[in-house]
Specification:
Order of helices and strands: HHHHHHHHHHHH
Distance between the termini: 25 Å
Radius of gyration: 18 Å
Largest sheet: none
Number of helices: 12
Mean pLDDT: 86
Number of domains: 1
Low-confidence stretches: none
Length: 276
């Protein structure tokens, strides 16, 4: 139970930062007393907690999006300007969710096996860290979410699907794509959080349902739920901080941290301290 709570804290601390929560869960699992991979199922269910934190933090935005979508579906011609924008954003969130739903469903074997290799985790931490740093440094900062188009929504969605590989980072990949497309940091981050809602709740619910009929990797269902609640509380506190941080600061500290962690992980692997 203490291990589960610890991993819940790590999940809450890292989910909304571009440093990959799944990589941290995967790596730290090797150093806990149980010394094993917590598993993709445990990770996916635990992410429900941090996504509930997103729902609570953005509750006003989400209520507005749902209301506008309902009005669009029932009486499209009556929508005013802001409501049209909200209904359009809701549609783009659903369109952007398609890539990760398709790849997540059909790539189950890779997600549970090949993608858990620590060599791959180390590579993605370093490579995508460098990519995020370059794009954030040289990317334009001219667009807000009102400028979002279908092609941009799909591009965001493809970037998000890369987060099926631990080490990429869901927020990091979508933020990098947003910056590459010319969106402001806060706009890229906000859409990243909203885009993650269908994907995380969908995959987490799918894994939770499946866990009722088969054992989890390392933790019982009760321990997993405690970790999920822990991630919810910590995650909510982190969202408040990171939304303020990106208004004035760059992502460079996270880039440096990713490169450091990836390099350290490679050293541990090459010296035989841990196995891939």
């Amino acid at each position: 139970m203490l291990e589960a709570i610890f991993l819940g804290i790590i999940q809450g601390l890292t989910e909304f930062l571009p440093i990959s929560s799944s990589a941290h869960i995967r790596i730290l699992g090797e150093f806990l007393p149980s010394a094993q991979d917590p598993g993709a199922t445990f990770t996916a269910i635990m992410q429900i907690g941090t996504e509930l934190a997103v729902l609570f933090y953005f509750r006003a935005d989400i209520a507005r999006l749902i209301s506008a979508s309902f009005k669009w579906a029932t009486r499209r011609k009556d929508l005013l300007g802001p409501e049209q924008s909200d209904a359009r954003l809701s549609g783009l969130i659903l369109i952007g969710s398609l890539p990760i739903f398709l790849l997540g469903y059909f790539g189950q074997e890779y997600i549970r096996q090949s993608f858990r290799s620590l060599y791959l985790v180390a590579f993605t931490l370093i490579a995508f860290g460098l990519l995020l740093g370059l794009i954030d440094l040289y990317g334009k900062k001219i667009k807000d979410l009102e400028s979002l188009e279908v092609k941009d929504g799909l591009a965001y969605g493809i970037a998000q699907s890369l987060a099926l590989i631990p080490g990429v980072s869901r927020s990091g990949a979508t933020i990098a794509m947003g910056r590459a497309l010319g969106y402001r940091r806060e706009a890229a981050l906000r859409y990243s959080f909203l885009l993650a809602i269908p994907a995380v709740l969908g995959s987490g619910s799918f894994e939770l349902f499946n866990s009722l009929s088969r054992p989890l990797n390392a933790f019982s269902l009760a321990e997993t739920l405690v970790a999920t609640l822990t991630a919810l509380v910590i995650g909510y506190l982190v969202i408040s901080w990171v939304m303020k941080y990106v208004e004035t600061k760059s992502f460079m500290p996270f880039v440096i941290y990713r490169i450091f962690l990836g390099t350290l992980l490679l050293i541990l692997l090459f010296t035989g301290v841990i196995t891939a």
